[in-house]
């Protein structure tokens, strides 16, 4: 039923611009992505350091796969019009943020859920088999980063008290002076791509898949966050209990020594 609805929407939008078609067929998925537990936490300004660090780990895996595929297909007729590495590339930015939080050996500390691996695998797969589908993923990720991502950046900075932009490189686009104007240019370039009817249908289906993959990543990340925070709380509780027992034992010993010392002086 859901697939039939999507295909019907595609047929009705045959004569409209590609960017508008993608926006239309992903509307429901977009709403679902915004209403995942992870994104709702962001919207409420309730962002933990654990959430952000794990999100960065997944973004690293995703952008590594996406930008590698885009670089390898930069001359493809569908990819070339929307290939803006100087303006949009995120990989180096994420690496700087990961180093800030995890240290120089951050690569050894990255942890990602299965959904992130599946997403990255899909990007590499279409990079080899259907490079034109990369347009749908690039549109979903980069324009999202330039839109709602900017709001998330400000929320993250405020929630975590990050000063001077440290740990927030992912949200910074120094090569884009006006996000709104750049997004207009990007959509115009997208709409100039010549596609056969089957290619267009495939790309629209891939755009829906891109959102679904992101939703799965958000859901899996939130599960990881919950487990990590529970383990951290358990560790802190255990540490506190040990400290309490140690303090209690130390007090008893000290009290015992004091009584013994007092008794000695009393009998003397």
Automatic annotation (TrEMBL):
Coiled-coil zones: none
Protein name: Heme oxygenase
Species the sequence originates in: Oncorhynchus mykiss (Rainbow trout)
Location of region: Disordered: 232-268
GO molecular function, one term: heme binding
Catalyzed chemical reaction(s): heme b + 3 reduced [NADPH--hemoprotein reductase] + 3 O2 = biliverdin IXalpha + CO + Fe(2+) + 3 oxidized [NADPH--hemoprotein reductase] + 3 H2O + H(+)
Main location per the UniProt record: endoplasmic reticulum
One CC-aspect GO term: endoplasmic reticulum
A GO biological-process term: heme oxidation
Annotated EC: 1.14.14.18
Entry similarity comment: Belongs to the heme oxygenase family.
Subcellular location: Endoplasmic reticulum
Designated gene of the protein: LOC110485518
InterPro entries in the record: Haem_Oase, Haem_Oase-like, Haem_Oase-like_multi-hlx, Haem_oxygenase_CS
One Pfam match: Heme_oxygenase
SUPFAM superfamilies given in the database record: Heme oxygenase-like
Keywords, ordered alphabetically: Endoplasmic reticulum, Heme, Iron, Metal-binding, Oxidoreductase
Positions of heme b binding: 23, 30, 139, 187
PROSITE patterns registered for this protein in UniProt: HEME_OXYGENASE (PS00593)
Basic and acidic residues biased stretches: 252-268
């Amino acid at each position: 039923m859901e697939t039939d609805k999507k295909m019907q929407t595609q047929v009705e939008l045959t004569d409209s611009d590609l960017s508008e078609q993608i926006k239309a067929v992903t509307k429901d998925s977009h709403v679902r992505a915004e209403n995942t537990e992870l994104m709702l936490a962001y919207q409420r300004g309730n962002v933990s350091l654990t959430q952000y660090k794990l999100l960065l780990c997944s973004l690293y895996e995703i952008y590594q796969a996406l930008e590698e595929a885009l670089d390898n297909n930069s001359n493809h007729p569908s990819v070339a019009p929307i290939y803006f590495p100087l303006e949009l590339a995120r990989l180096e930015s994420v690496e700087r943020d990961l180093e800030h939080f995890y240290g120089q050996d951050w690569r050894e500390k990255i942890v990602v859920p299965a959904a992130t691996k599946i997403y990255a695998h899909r990007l590499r797969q279409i990079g080899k088999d259907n490079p034109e589908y990369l347009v749908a993923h690039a549109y979903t990720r980069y324009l999202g980063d330039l839109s709602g991502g900017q709001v998330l950046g400000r929320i993250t900075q405020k929630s975590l008290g990050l000063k001077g932009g440290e740990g927030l490189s992912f949200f910074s686009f120094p090569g884009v002076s006006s996000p709104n104007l750049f997004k207009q240019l990007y959509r115009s370039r997208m709409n100039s791509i010549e596609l056969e009817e089957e290619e267009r249908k495939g790309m629209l289906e891939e755009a829906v898949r891109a959102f679904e993959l992101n939703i799965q990543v958000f859901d899996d990340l939130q599960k990881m966050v919950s487990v990590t925070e529970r383990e951290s709380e358990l560790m802190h509780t255990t540490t506190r209990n040990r400290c309490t027992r140690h303090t209690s034992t130390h007090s008893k010993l000290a009290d015992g020594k004091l009584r013994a010392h007092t008794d000695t002086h009393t009998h003397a």
